[in-house]
């Protein structure tokens, strides 16, 4: 009896073990190596970040809601399920979805799917991705909720005009004047790893301004700084190794830490790339100039401020008076921040808690990342472990929520003593970052779009969805 039971269990197991081999034989196409190559490209492209509902959904089964000022877009199931996923996609249909934003049934996808970046992918890499998505991903027999935007945003065809203007239609071609490493770096940085999506400022139609490549852009509540090779405004003072270390770990001692969407990109994607590919990306990024290059002698955002405190400034004084006179910053710092960042903002010796002087977040050209760090904290998973700073905004796990007036006071104290003393933060600035970053212009465009036609609204949607997704998933990670 016992042995029968074991046999009964073993038989389906043995069958299951055979099944993939025979399936591969009958389909007869994809080698293990090809599927692995596809898996690596999918990681480099961060497909899983958007196509998974991180509140308990299965990988690649879709269902992640991405809110935008004009409605919620929901990512789709891209597992090989024939009924609910992309199991019936031919390779040509798959290529069109990834590179051109055209769905299997011919309808246009919303640019929340970053086909503009992926458009540079070679046929060879699309082939590997297709192999992975048909034979390397588990089918999930679940329907992702459907996207239904209000009129006129529900007219998918109106994306065609924008695509005509702004979607590149050429795959990557090597520049023979450059090294193989540089070309590989360009291919990854502009395509799969899409650095410019966040680090390049956008124009009125929400298109990336190619002539200002990597000179810095607002992405939801965070600012993705200038990463050109400019010595003052960019990262021209970093070595090749510095940049690779940052992409792999999310930090560079006494210079920069990755929070927000950069932390997500590192956690899900960049840290898993090979050293060869990270070096290629660094080689390419370090070759990009800032068109308005600055004098090399000026101080950078990595070497501003110094250690110190203002304990005597508030001892024995009334907190409410301090708030009124806007000098409660040092009191707020001591109460909320000093336990980790130190009384003199010097951080800890091992660098786990960074110093707040000599820190890119506090000495940038704008105060966005100081405010965002306070409101949203830091949350990053790498091979080195979990890096976490609690949020002080209104996130679900906030221990001590600070008001706009308090955050402004605290930011001004940090900027003045440790960072860029030329900047000043108002409570209104804080509210803007709390609301997910500067989006009023987008909303305005969306309203105009309602009156004038769907195209304008969809243009707005394109960027807005991306920006708001970042805020949304941040809230989810925090929860
Ligand atoms: C920034 C978020 C994001 C990333 C990254 C992303 N996608 Fe998407 N993708 C979406 C959204 C949202 C949709 C649905 C858009 C719509 O409904 O118009 C989508 C739709 C698709 C579709 C169409 C499926 C269907 O409904 O028939 C395919 C195929 C697809 N994505 C593949 C990929 C692959 C492969 C990758 C990685 C190389 C990837 N996506 C990365 C957001 C993303
Ligand atoms: C999804 C948006 C996003 C993508 C994609 C992205 N970044 Fe970032 N990046 C950011 C944000 C936001 C910051 C600021 C993080 C902080 O200070 O906490 C940042 C910070 C950085 C910094 C540190 C700069 C400084 O002064 O602190 C470097 C270097 C960098 N990114 C390089 C890259 C490279 C190279 C790529 C592509 C391989 C890339 N990023 C892709 C959003 C992004
Ligand atoms: C429980 C410990 C802890 C507390 C309390 C704390 N921080 Fe942090 N902080 C961290 C950690 C950890 C990091 C990220 C280090 C890394 O990325 O490697 C960080 C990073 C930062 C950064 C850089 C973020 C970036 O995007 O580059 C700033 C600015 C900052 N903290 C300010 C503050 C302020 C202001 C307070 C008080 C309101 C505060 N912190 C309270 C632990 C803490």
From TrEMBL:
Q: Report the cofactor remark.
A: Binds 3 heme c groups covalently per subunit.
Chain positions recorded as heme c 3 binding sites: 337, 340-341
Where on the tree of life does the source sit, at the highest rank?
A: Bacteria
| InterPro entries listed in its UniProt record | Cyt_c-like_dom, Cyt_c-like_dom_sf, Cytochrome_c-type_DH, Membr-bd_ADH_cyt_c
Where is the chain membrane-spanning?
A: 444-468
List cofactor names only: heme c
Which residues does the UniProt record annotate as the domain Cytochrome c?
33-137, 180-289, 324-418
Instruction: Give one GO molecular function term.
Output: electron transfer activity
Residues engaged in binding heme c 1 = 47, 50-51
**What residues bind heme c 2, as annotated?**
195, 198-199
Keywords from the UniProt entry: Cell membrane, Heme, Iron, Membrane, Metal-binding, Repeat, Signal, Transmembrane, Transmembrane helix
CC terms in the record's Gene Ontology section: plasma membrane
Q: What is this protein called?
A: C-type cytochrome
As given in the record, the signal peptide range reads 1-23
Subcellular location field: Cell membrane
């Amino acid at each position: 009896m016992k042995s029968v039971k074991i046999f009964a269990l073993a038989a389906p197991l043995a069958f299951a073990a055979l099944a993939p081999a025979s399936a591969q034989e009958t389909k007869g196409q994809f080698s293990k190596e090809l599927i692995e190559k596809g898996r690596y490209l999918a990681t480099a492209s961060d497909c899983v970040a958007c196509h998974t509902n991180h509140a308990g959904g299965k990988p690649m089964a879709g269902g992640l809601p991405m809110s935008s000022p004009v409605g919620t877009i929901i990512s789709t199931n891209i597992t090989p399920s024939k009924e609910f996923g992309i199991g019936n996609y031919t390779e040509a249909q798959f290529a069109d979805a990834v590179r051109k934003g055209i769905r299997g049934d011919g309808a246009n996808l919303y640019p929340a799917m970053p086909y503009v970046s992926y458009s540079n992918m070679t046929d060879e890499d699309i082939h590997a991705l297709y192999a992975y998505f048909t034979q390397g991903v588990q089918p999930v027999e679940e329907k992702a909720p459907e996207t239904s935007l209000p009129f006129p945003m529900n007219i998918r065809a109106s994306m065609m005009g924008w695509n005509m203007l702004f979607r590149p239609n050429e795959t990557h071609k090597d520049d023979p004047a450059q090294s193989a490493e540089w070309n590989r770096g360009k291919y990854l940085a502009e395509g799969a790893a899409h650095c410019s999506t966040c680090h390049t400022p956008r124009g009125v139609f929400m298109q990336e301004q190619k002539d200002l490549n990597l000179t810095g852009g607002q992405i939801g509540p965070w600012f993705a700084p200038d990463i050109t090779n400019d010595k003052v405004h960019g990262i021209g003072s970093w070595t090749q190794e510095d940049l690779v270390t940052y992409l792999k770990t999310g930090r560079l001692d006494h210079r920069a830490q990755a929070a927000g969407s950069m932390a997500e990109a590192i956690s899900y994607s960049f840290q898993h790339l090979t050293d060869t590919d990270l070096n290629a990306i660094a080689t390419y990024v370090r070759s990009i100039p800032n068109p308005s290059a600055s004098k090399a002698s000026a101080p950078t955002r990595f070497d501003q401020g110094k250690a110190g405190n203002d304990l005597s400034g508030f001892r024995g004084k009334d907190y409410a008076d301090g708030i009124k006179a806007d000098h409660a910053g040092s009191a707020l710092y001591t109460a909320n921040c000093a336990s980790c960042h130190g009384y003199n903002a010097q951080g800890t010796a091992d660098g786990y808690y960074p110093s707040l002087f000599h820190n890119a977040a506090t000495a940038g050209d704008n105060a966005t990342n100081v405010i965002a760090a306070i409101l949203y904290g830091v949350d990053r998973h790498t091979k080195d472990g979990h890096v976490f700073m609690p949020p002080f905004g209104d996130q679900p796990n906030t221990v001590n929520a600070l008001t706009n007036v308090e955050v402004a006071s605290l930011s001004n104290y940090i900027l003045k003593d440790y960072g860029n003393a030329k900047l000043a933060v108002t409570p209104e600035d804080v509210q803007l970052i709390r609301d997910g970053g500067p989006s009023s212009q987008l909303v305005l465009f969306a309203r105009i779009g309602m009156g004038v036609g769907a195209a304008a609204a969809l243009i707005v949607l394109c960027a807005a969805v991306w920006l708001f997704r970042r805020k949304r998933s941040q809230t989810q990670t925090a929860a």
